[in-house]
Amino acid sequence: MKTVINNYIREGMFPNIWCPGCGNGIVLGAIIRAIDDLNWDKDKIVAVSGIGCSSRITGYVDFCTMNTTHGRALPFATGIKMANPDLKVIVVMGDGDCSAIGGNHFIHAARRNIDLTAIIINNMIYGMTGGQYSPLTPTGKFGSTAPYGNIDQSFDLCELAIAAGASYVARGTVYNPRQSTSLIKNALDKKGFSVVEIISDCPVSYGKMNKMKSPVDMLKWIKDITVSKKVWEGLSPDEKKEKYAIGEFLSKDRPDYTELYEEIIKKAQERGGNK
Amino acid sequence: MNNLKKKKNIKLLQGNEACAEGALLAGVKFFAGYPITPSSEIAENMARKLPKIGGKFIQMEDEIASMAAVIGASIAGLKSLTATSGPGMCLKQENLGFAIINEIPCVVVNAQRGGPSTGLPTKPSQGDMMQARWGTHGDHPIIALAPSTVNEILTLTIKAFNFSEKYRTPVILLLDEVIAHMREKVEIPAPENIEVINRKKPTVPPEEYLPFKPDEDGVPPMANFGEGYRYHITGLIHNYKGLPTSNSQEIDAFIRRLHNKIQKNIKDIIIYEKYSLDDAKIALIAYGSVARAAERTVKLAREEGLKVGLLKLLTIWPFPFEEVNRLAQQVDLIIVPEMNLGQIVLEAERAAQGKCRVVPYGRVDGELINPIEILGKIWEEIRK
Question: Tens of pLDDT along A108-133?
Fold first, then answer.
């Protein structure tokens, strides 16, 4: 059966490399549906990723695509967007990719408010390398490098993005693909740096080490740990520790970096001379 | 008849300024960098001049990000430059490899300072010659050029862009603190007198485009992102389509092609100058600011009746193996003065293949090697 999805994928690349039950495919579907809703020209879309399971998404979509180095997707995308601001640039990262090795690039992309859309697939683990804990692994959970439980405090990536200056920040889950699609669509449509974190499942690594062996167990868990933004606001501090808010957290208008640079070009050219 | 000669455009320029001028003449439209001594003036010049021509400058959060941004901008169609020094050059290595494997044209300047680590930020060194060759991991080719005058910085910066576009490869321009910061008279060539090479574009429609299928010269035509050619770029070893491959034949052919596209064109890429070598029995091989001292040494030695000449290397990588080999058959002794304890001398020795004695002369105290001490080394070797 052909669906809208077929119009946007490189069919020769399938079957994909992801494990059975992986949430990456749900996110891929949500991204494609959001783009289709916006009716964007495929020739003007660039998808950039880093390294990890989630970053393989760029290989499957029929745009100009780039699977870069670990954690560096945002600076590559920054160069592309600066060079040609007419391009729509989407960046797909994993949680380790974006928040550990790429953490500095993430906060600076948000600070500049450059017109990119960052989609972070958060499965709370390094999946491709075999289940090591990441900066988004919840405290107390297990990973192959946290055999006695994780003592690290995890980032709230959305709060980090807001604090650093992003224009749009939202969180969805693979349990709520329709909501995720609409959050991604809003983010893509927003001028400036937009961030959508999608909580996803990795039954093979995270699930196996945290007593959720089947994809269904993991999806149920994702359902249990997430609440709407409205419900979240009514929770006590202790209750908040166990839950993730989902929905749209921020949508504001602020000049994007490439627009500001056009002003620089104007100023420099008005001044004239060669000095 | 108009007898009025067009006035020459002569300027007193700092080495780093000349690099920026050369880049502009070559068509640079994008610079991403991070402040570091002794290369920062290149970034400052670019920040001032690029927006005047509608180009873009961005100061990134670190050198890793600046290298990434440069590659991204090049893929989106702009000739791109970054400049750094020792510690920053270490950070460039990761994405330099990405540019090599994806054949992305760009120029990376390393104004060498003393190292390792923070080392000697304001003093010259030639300690990064082997890093330029092998700094990023994997078995890869590279082009690296080393000017020795401010004028050469300008002309070799243009060359660096041309090589990068022609062969689809990053090119490293190796300065050192002395020539990066010194000022000299530079004749800025008129744009119509400059050869500017731009990357080959595909001649086939998008549905027939194979982004990594080489032409006969070993170089695949490059479509910029946004031009209607949708394709994939990956740091994984890839096939003609740009998609990851684990086919051993494809892998082997890919890596060999990366090397061959440089190796097959060494006649075009290797640049050197000869001083008083015709009757020489002793040859100096030098590059960068040390070549200036070596040139003077030749004059002093000739005054003392010694048949000394100089082979000045402007292309360091690929190494001018043939030229050095021929030289070794002619002379009895090759001395390689350099501001390290023996890097390029190893290549010279390899190229000489035992046909003459090859000895190093190194200095690593943060001071430039002077002509007298090279002359002293010549006498020392003669008396041995």
Answer: 999 999 999 999 999 999 999 999 99
Q: Are residues B182 and B290 located together in one domain of the fold?
A: no
Q: What is the pLDDT of residues B72-112, one digit of tens each?
A: 999 999 999 999 999 999 999 999 999 999 999 999 999 99
Gap between the Cα atoms of A34 and A44, Å rounded: 15
Q: Which H, E and C letters describe chain A, residue by residue?
A: CCCHHHHCECHHHCCCCCCCCCCHHHHHHHHHHHHHHHCCCHHHEEEEECCCCHHHHHHHECCEEEECCCCCHHHHHHHHHHHCCCCEEEEEEEHHHHHHHCHHHHHHHHHHCCCCEEEEEECCEECCCCCEECCCCCCCCCECCECCCCCCCCCCHHHHHHHHCCCEEEEEECCCHHHHHHHHHHHHHCCCCEEEEEECCCHHHHHHHCCCCCHHHHHHHHHHHEEEHHHHHCCCHHHHCCCEEEEEEEECCCCCHHHHHHHHHHHHHHHCCCC
Residue that finishes a domain, picked among B193, B214, B245: B193
Its pTM stands at 0.97
- Give the pLDDT confidence score for residue B305 in this predicted structure: 98
Low-confidence stretches of chain A (pLDDT < 50) are none
Closest CA to A258 of A158, A116, A134: A116
The CATH number covering residue B352 comes to 3.40.50.920
Instruction: Give the C-alpha separation, B314 to B312, whole Å.
Output: 6
CATH code for position B143: 3.40.50.970
Identify the pLDDT of residue A273: 62
Q: CA-CA distances (angstroms) from residue B263 to A261, B254, B256?
A: 41, 14, 10
List chain B residues with CB under 8 Å of A269.
51-52, 54
Task: Identify which of A30, A12, A8 has the alpha carbon closest to the alpha carbon of residue A174.
Answer: A30
Helices (H), B168-247: 177-181
Yes or no, beta carbons of B68 and A76 under 8 Å apart: yes
**For chain B, which residues score pLDDT lower than 70?**
1-6
**Gap from B280 CA to chain A (nearest CA, Å):** 46
Distance of CA B141 to the CA centre of its chain: 13
Range 140-169 of B in CB contact (< 8 A) with A: none
Please, are residues B69 and A261 in contact by the beta-carbon 8 Å criterion?
A: no
In terms of residue numbers, what domain contains B354?
273-383
Around Cβ B146, how many Cβ atoms within 10 Å?
Answer: 32
In whole angstroms, what is the distance from residue B318 CA to residue B296 CA? Answer: 26
Residue in B with minimal Cα distance to A270:
B52
pLDDT of residue B213: 98
CATH architecture of A4-271: 3-Layer(aba) Sandwich (3.40)
Distances (CA, A) of B260 to B238, B255, B265, B283: 17, 9, 8, 30
CA distance A40 to chain B (A): 13
Q: Give phi and psi for B115, each to the nearest 5.
A: -145, -170
Of the candidates B58, B71, B225, the beta carbon closest to that of A46 is on: B225
Q: Is B9 on the interface with A (CB under 8 A)?
A: no
Q: Write down the pLDDT at residue B4.
A: 55
Residue B7 has a pLDDT of 81
Per the CB < 8 Å rule, is B244 touching A269? Answer: no
Residue A74: its chain B contacts at CB < 8 A?
65
Instruction: For strands B106-114 and B80-84, give the pairing.
Output: parallel
